[in-house]
Each structure stands twice: as structure tokens, then as C-alpha cells.
Design a protein that fits this description.
about 750 residues; five-stranded mixed β-sheet; eight-stranded mixed beta barrel; 28 helices; alpha/beta
Length: about 750
């Protein structure tokens, strides 16, 4: 369709231009008289008739502006018709009824240009109109000095001044439209050319014709050509310029040069008049009036410019202090407001609640950042709704929010707000017909916990509390002094961890797992230790979580894999046929290269896959279920076994558990150690053993600390146990002796149970 209709739309303006040019050429050779006047009027009427055709064809964007132009051109042509009749029937007087039509037409074209819109936005504003008026006043002053002969104006001269200056005013507005878009479409250039011809014709008619410089016929041809260009512009389809041919810098410089020239007309006019020797009494009043008009318009433009700067400055301040996604305060405003609230002495009773969304990145990865922004905006709205008007809610960036309670607030108030924030974040929300439930970790810091606390220090405390909250249930913590010490120690240890791997400070210890069916040790769990040169033997809890956050975990995992498999190979060569159980973290489960790394290590140490058991917690497997299952299935394909560690403390459903390639469940020690004091836990242990067997899984119980517990678990049908009653973790070189001792001491005990 477009390829068929486009040629006709592009040919019509060209044909109209050719036909109109021919008609004007015919008019140029007609003798003065009724025929020439009639031809002039016919051409003018035809042009006016072409404008509605262009509008009704749907080619114009700002149709309302073009309809104003239709009326304006119609008034001009009506004035021309009156003049044509008057010229051939009686003498023409100035002013005449035609001038009423001309003046009204000029005003309507001015309204038409000012009302032009682009994509719903006006293309000309109040500053543009002021600048056009300043330029017009400057041109008017130049006209009076250089062409009027310093005559005092009568009614006809005042009309001439109006027509010529309004022509200039309209021409400048057209130029501003072109500069506004920074490139001129053909329609704009046609309108500009039409106005330029109108300026030339009117200027010559009222300023120069008295000196006989230009004949009436030539002026009429200019006016007809101007009409014709208006008609061609109306018939063209409005379009955006494909290339921005005028830069913003050039646009601003052009306007500056024109304005400067207009303002400079006053001293230039004074210099010219002085050089001519014209008495000041003759030209002074005109210059004073003209200069006063220019100065007044310039002052108004400067006021408009300063008002714009104030609005832009306010907008920039708002942008600098506002988060663009949620509309909340940002980090900068939070710090400033918090500093103002605390004051120089650190006012008591101020609380900062920091909310960190858990696994928010999954939403961005799954649904895209647009949906992620919508979720953030909803969270921001919920947090704002739950606090009072005096509280400040801010988004610190990413998935972090903060609430400042200016107080007076105590620990109870702050914790209540923190819990309310958790509930607000955790309330379900629907995204693309999917119901989502978010979780968050919340840290609370109180200014009363230390005197003279500053805003930056209070924020640091809240961050420390959030880190602590991530390891707790519910995920909420209030800052205390030990958190600062822990954080400093963690940072220092992370700096030392890389060297610890290289220098052999990391060690892998092993704790036996007893098979209750045979009474012998069937495997050992690998447990990481750090023999720190100054702090002694550190357990994984002291450094492993930080290692995961800082990117050191892959190196630690590689060390544990290689060390554990090397030890297992040595045990097997010594005649001890056992497997080794290795714990995997969340970071390991989303590592697509883990299976290849395990295969390489198995091959290096000549071990079958059955020699290795990988233990994962329910929580770690649930963090990213899709990738976790892929990793576990890739490991299972190597022949290794998969065990769910700390079973019963996570939140996985049985349906999800059934989807995992699992061969073993490992009951959490919290249930086992209390079976004699808590009947509910005893029931959980019994049910878990039955559940594992019904699913064809091997069941292991942790936390066996005495013979009585061992006997109960054996009676309940538990497959294997692990705990201090069986054996404590030992170094690799102590494993053989420890296993022999366990096998001797427990086999008799098991057989007697």
C-alpha cells in the first residue's frame, strides 16, 4: 500500500508548484488592468483552496495550526480582492478596509505558528516569542534609520511598520521551529521561504517603493510566489528530518548572534545618525522608544531565562536526591538527612532499619529489569505505607532499602518496624500472572548504642547487622559491638585466605560415619579447618561464608576436592574401602564447571565415582533449583552419590525432594540430640527414617553423642550414624588408626543391642 500511495503524494505538491509557477509567469506579462487583477486573484484563491486539501488528506501533523493558516490566508486574499476591485474602479486609500483583513491575517498566522506541536509538545515557547520580538524591534529600528528618511510616521507608515515588522516576527518564528528540531524538513523550508518573500515584498512596498526602486508588478509577483509556497507546504506530507543537520551548539550560537545583533542596533543607529549629521532632536525620541522596547523585552527574556534556570536547578536537585525507579530518597539524601537528624552530637533515639532483599537478582534474570523495577517500586510503596510521615524511606541502590526513624525510638520500636518491614516485603505480589513471595534480611542500628554516632557510622552498623541477619532465623538482627569485631576479623581473614591455601594452613579433617547394619565405618566426612598462625584452629563458620562472598570459594572447593580424594586413594591402597563425603555450598551448585572439575580429580587419583558422596543442604539446593538440579544430575552421571545434609531444617517440599537425584538423607543433629527430652523430635526422627526407607534412600543420623542414642537409632532402623560418640574429626594421617578403633569398639556394642 505504501509503495503505491507514496508517489501520488509526492507528485501532487510538485505538480501544484509547476502549475502555480506557470500561472505567475503568465500574470507577469499581462498588461495592467482588470484581466491582470483577475488572474492575480484567481491564483491567490487557488492557493488558499490547496491548503484545506492538504489538511484533509491527513498529511499534516498540527492540523489545527494549518486551519488557522487557512483562515489567515483567506483574509489576505480577501484584502487582495478588495484592492484589485478598488484599483480598477476608484482610487486606493490607506488605510482601507483591506488592511483590517491583512492585520487579522497576520495575527492568525502568528497564533498558528505558536500553536505548532511536535509529539504533543509545543515547538515554540514564551522565550522563543520574546526573542523573536527582540529581533523584530531591532530590525524595525534599523528600518527607520536606514530607509525611512527619518520621517515622522503617519497612518500609512504605521501600517507599513506593522506589516514589515510582523513579517520579520513570523519569519523568525519559522526559523526557531527549524532550530528547535535542529534540522529542517521540506515543509519548514517552504514556509520559511514564503515568509522571506513576504518580508521582501512588504518591506519594498512600504519602505523603498516611494523612491521608485521596485515596481508594483514585481511586488505582486513576490506576493503570489509567497502564496504559492504556502500552498505547496500545505500539500506536502509532514515528516521528521532523517538526519540532524544542525547541532545544539550551532543552534544556540545562531540564536545568540541574532539576539546580539538585534540588541546592538541601538548603538549602531546612534552612530549612523551622528555620522549623517542628523540632529538629535529629530531622531532621539525614536531611538529612545525603540531602545526602551528592546531593553524591556531583553529584561523580560532574562527573567524568563533565570526562571528556567531555577526550575532546572530544582529538577537537578530532585534528581540528585531521588531514586529514579521508586521515587524514594536515594543514598545521598539519606546520608544528608540522617546527619541532620543526628546533629553534631549524635542525638539519641534515632533508629536505622536496613532491608536487603534476598535473591532479587533472580527476578531480573527471569522476568527482565522492567519487571524488576516494578517490584522495587511496589516494595518502596509498601515500606512508605507502614511508617509515619516523620520517617524517611530510601532506596540505597540495587535491592537495598532503608527506613530512618527520627525518634524518639527505642529497641522495641525499631524491631517492631523491622518486623513490619519483613511482613510488607514478604506479602505476595503478582507479576505477569505469577504470584511471587520475596524474603529479606533486616538489620537495625540504634544511635543510643554508642554516644556521638555519625550518619556514616550508623549506616555501617546497619550493614553489619544485615550480614549477621543472613545467618539467623528469622533474618533480623540488631547491631551490637561484637559485629564490628567480627566484620574486621572477616575482612582481615579474607586477605589472608589466599596465602593460607598456598602455604598449607588449610587442612581437611575427617569424621567417621558408622554403618549400623555392619557395625563398621563405611565412610568419612571431609571437614575443612584453618590452622591460623595467630588465632589457632578455625572452623569453617569463621571464614567460609565470607570466602563465598569475596570469590575465594572456588579455590577453597578445589583444595577440598583434591585433598579429600587424595586421602581416600591412600586409604584404599591401605585396604580401607570407604567413601569420602564432601560438602557443597550454594556457589558450588551454580558452578557449571563443577562436574568437569570432579571428573578430573577422580581421574587424577584413580577413584571410581562411588568413592565420593556430595552433601548439600536443602536451603542451598533451593536457592536456584533449576541450576542446582542440573549440577547434581551432572555429578550423579559420574557415579557419585548425593546426600541431603541437615534434612528437616530447610523448606523443601517432598515433591521437590523427589525431583533431586538423591541417594541419602542426613538428619540434622538438632532432632537427634533431644530425642529423650522432646517426644516431638523422637516422632520426627522415627518418621524421617520411615520416609527415607519408603523412598528407597539411605538415612544417616548426625549428633550421636552417647551409647543410649546409638541404641535407639539402631532400634528404629537407622542405616548409619555420625557423632562424637563414634569418633571426633581427625587429621588424614590418623584416619586408619581411628577407623580400626571404631570398628573394634562398636561392632560388639552393635551386636549386643
Amino acid at each position: 500500500m505504501n509503495s503505491v500511495s507514496s508517489p501520488s503524494r509526492s507528485i501532487a505538491p510538485s505538480a501544484f508548484l509547476a502549475l502555480g509557477s506557470t500561472a505567475i509567469a503568465v500574470y507577469a506579462f499581462l498588461p495592467v488592468g482588470i484581466l491582470a487583477s483577475a488572474v492575480y486573484c484567481v491564483i491567490a484563491v487557488a492557493v488558499v483552496a490547496a491548503v484545506p486539501v492538504g489538511i484533509l488528506s491527513g498529511r499534516k501533523v498540527s492540523a489545527h495550526s494549518w486551519w488557522l493558516m487557512v483562515v489567515a490566508l483567506g483574509l489576505w486574499v480577501a484584502g487582495d480582492i478588495y484592492y484589485g476591485i478598488a484599483e480598477n474602479t476608484s482610487s486606493v486609500t490607506t488605510p482601507s478596509p483591506a488592511d483590517i483583513a491583512y492585520v487579522a491575517g497576520y495575527l492568525l498566522i502568528g497564533f498558528a505558528l505558536v500553536s505548532v506541536r511536535s509529539e504533543g509538545t509545543p515547538m515554540l515557547g514564551f522565550p522563543d516569542i520574546l526573542e523573536a520580538a527582540i529581533m523584530t524591534a531591532g530590525v524595525g529600528l534599523a528600518s527607520w534609520v536606514f530607509a525611512s528618511g527619518n520621517k515622522y510616521p503617519d497612518a500609512s507608515i504605521w501600517l507599513g511598520i506593522f506589516y514589515t515588522e510582523f513579517d520579520v516576527f513570523l519569519l523568525v518564528l519559522v526559523v526557531f521551529v527549524v532550530l528547535h528540531r535542529r534540522a529542517g524538513s521540506p515543509t519548514h523550508w517552504l514556509l520559511g521561504s514564503a515568509m522571506a518573500l513576504m518580508v521582501i515584498a512588504d518591506y519594498a512596498s512600504y519602505v523603498l517603493e516611494a523612491d521608485g526602486v521596485i515596481t508594483t508588478r514585481v511586488l505582486n509577483i513576490c506576493w503570489l510566489a509567497s502564496y504559492l509556497l504556502f500552498g505547496v507546504a500545505a500539500l506536502r506530507k509532514d515528516e521528521r528530518p532523517r538526519v540532524s543537520t544542525i547541532s545544539r551548539a550551532r543552534t544556540g550560537m545562531t540564536r545568540l548572534v541574532i539576539l546580539t545583533t538585534a540588541v546592538a542596533m541601538t548603538p549602531i543607529a546612534m552612530s549612523v545618525q551622528l555620522a549623517r549629521g542628523v540632529p538629535v532632536t529629530q531622531w532621539g525620541p525614536v531611538l529612545v522608544v525603540a531602545a526602551s522596547v528592546i531593553v524591556a523585552l531583553g529584561a523580560l527574556r532574562m527573567w524568563s531565562f533565570l526562571a528556567l534556570l531555577q526550575r532546572q536547578s530544582a529538577a537537578l536537585r530532585r534528581a540528585a536526591d531521588t531514586d529514579m525507579v521508586t521515587g524514594l530518597a536515594n543514598r545521598a539524601l539519606l546520608g544528608r538527612r540522617l546527619g541532620e537528624i543526628l546533629g553534631p552530637t549524635g542525638r539519641d533515639g534515632v533508629a536505622l532499619v536496613l532491608i536487603d532483599l534476598n535473591r532479587f537478582s533472580d527476578i531480573n534474570q527471569t522476568f527482565g529489569y522492567t519487571v524488576g523495577d516494578q517490584v522495587l517500586a511496589e516494595i518502596g510503596h509498601r515500606l512508605t505505607s507502614l511508617v509515619g510521615p516523620d520517617a524517611l524511606v530510601a532506596r540505597l541502590g540495587g535491592d537495598e532499602f532503608a527506613v530512618v526513624l527520627p525518634g524518639p525510638s527505642d529497641r522495641h520500636d525499631a524491631v517492631a518496624t523491622a518486623m513490619a518491614a519483613q511482613r510488607a516485603v514478604g506479602a505476595p505480589m503478582t507479576v505477569r500472572d505469577i504470584k511471587l513471595t520475596l524474603e529479606c534480611s533486616v538489620g537495625v542500628a540504634l544511635s543510643a548504642d554508642r554516644p556521638s554516632v555519625g550518619s556514616e557510622e550508623l549506616v555501617q552498623r546497619a550493614y553489619a547487622a544485615v550480614v549477621a541477619a543472613k545467618t539467623r532465623q528469622p533474618r533480623l538482627a540488631v547491631w551490637d559491638r561484637t559485629m564490628d569485631v567480627d566484620r574486621v576479623d572477616q575482612l582481615r581473614r579474607m586477605g589472608e585466605l589466599e596465602d593460607a591455601i598456598a602455604t598449607g594452613e588449610l587442612e581437611v579433617w575427617f569424621q567417621p560415619r558408622l554403618d549400623l547394619r555392619t557395625g563398621r565405618v563405611s565412610g568419612l566426612e571431609a571437614l575443612l579447618r584453618w590452622r591460623h598462625p595467630t588465632e589457632g584452629l578455625l572452623l569453617p563458620a569463621a571464614f567460609l561464608a565470607s570466602a563465598e562472598q569475596t570469590g575465594m570459594l572456588p579455590a577453597v572447593t578445589a583444595f577440598v576436592l583434591d585433598t579429600s580424594m587424595a586421602a581416600c586413594r591412600q586409604w584404599r591402597l591401605a585396604g580401607l574401602d570407604v567413601d569420602v563425603a564432601i560438602n557443597l555450598s550454594v556457589r558450588d551448585l551454580v558452578d557449571a564447571s563443577l562436574a568437569n572439575q570432579v571428573q578430573t580429580s577422580l581421574d587424577r587419583h584413580l577413584l571410581p565415582g562411588s568413592a565420593v558422596v556430595f552433601e548439600v543442604t536443602e536451603t542451598s539446593a533451593m536457592m536456584d533449583p533449576e541450576r542446582s538440579i542440573d549440577t547434581l544430575e551432572a555429578l550423579r552421571s559420574l557415579g557419585v552419590s548425593i546426600s541431603i545434609d541437615d534434612f528437616g531444617t530447610g523448606y523443601s517440599s517432598l515433591a521437590y525432594l523427589a525431583s533431586l537425584p538423591v541417594q541419602q538423607l542426613k538428619m540434622d543433629r538438632s532432632f537427634v540430640t533431644s530425642i529423650f527430652t522432646d517426644s516431638a523430635n523422637l516422632a520426627i526422627v522415627r518418621s524421617t527414617i520411615d520416609l527415607a526407607h519408603s523412598m528407597g534412600l539411605h538415612i544417616v543420623a548426625e549428633g550421636v553423642e552417647d551409647a543410649r542414642t546409638l541404641g535407639v537409632l539402631h532400634g528404629l532402623g537407622c542405616d548409619a550414624v555420625q557423632g562424637f560418640h563414634i569418633a571426633r574429626p581427625v587429621r588424614a594421617d590418623q584416619v586408619l588408626a581411628t577407623v580400626r578403633s571404631v570398628n573394634i569398639s562398636t561392632s560388639a556394642a552393635i551386636s549386643g543391642v
